[in-house]
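Sanity check. The docking grid for zinc ion depends on where the pocket ends up, so I'm generating a full predicted complex first rather than guessing from homology. Inputs follow.
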Amino acid sequence: MSEPSLPRRRFLAAALGGLALGRPGRSAHGAANPRKYRYIDIHTHVGRYYWGKDLTLAGLLKLMDRHGIERACVLPLVSPEATVYPQTSDDALAAFRAHPDRIIPFCCVDPRTNSGNPNRAGRLDLRSMIEVLTRFRDLGAKGFGEHQVGLPFDHPLMMTVYEACARVGLPILFHLDDIRGIDTPGLPRLEHALKSFPELPMIGHAAGFWASISGDARPEDFRRYLSAPRRVTPGGALERLMDAYPNLYGDLSEPGGYWAIHRDETFGRAFLIRRADRLLFGTDFLMADQEIPQFELLDSLNLPNEVQAKIYRGNALRLLKLDGDRGTGPTGPHPPSPSR
Ligand SMILES: [Zn+2]
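Predicted complex below; grid placement will be based on this.
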């Protein structure tokens, strides 16, 4: 992933840290409403993504403490189009066993372990995929992903994965762009999957997914991140699909999630409020000392408490069927994370 150029102001604020809770003050969106809740991060990684920049489990916990993140989902990356250095489901489960109060493990299988040929079954047909996912679920996995595979989004092998996730009861977090989870403007392939598995929560992210917040999304928007504000045009595919399919969710992590809101903050703020039941806070932490502009962006938007409660933690608790909260109800307020 290449980093877009971001407003220096936000980088500096993130670099300074100390954002355990939002700061009071004023923003373009009125008197700021500081953050009231500790985050549950729907999207992080542990291990190597960039050479020399490994994010260890201790390093992830440090980032979580610095930013008021109570718990984080650790997502394996196993497909060759997703990473040069695979991060396994066993790694995510080991992180969970070491810190069960902080880490929420996901599991992942590349669909091409299945031959797709009924006369020459590969390692995993649907039946054995269900067995494998059930085993991971029984060891503690709460979701499937990061599903980032170089196949069309509704390729038959991909549909087998969705069916297995639906049967085992694991929400799926997917990457969608022009080369992984491949789709095109209007998101017809994603719609096919949403329609085929209405009981499967599907949580989307990345360039193509978030470009589709706008009605004017073009093929080239699926392959790169924005680097300058751009107005959102009404009629985005995400709006249409969220209206039609209650199983579609959005992961606000990484540059795609950031730019979806920042490109047109008036629209972005209204979108967060209107879709508060469908959006999940995430960082996509994958290296030590990574800076995440989402913290300051969200703090600047003066979001109502009930919207914060859902996006920052409540939706994750509900979707991943987590064991409630730490004593104050599903979305109750929390003190800042104690610094370690
Ligand atoms: Zn990721």
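Relevant for the grid: The mean pLDDT is 88.
Also worth noting: The pocket of zinc ion is lined by residues 43, 45, 75, 146, 284 (CB under 6 Å).
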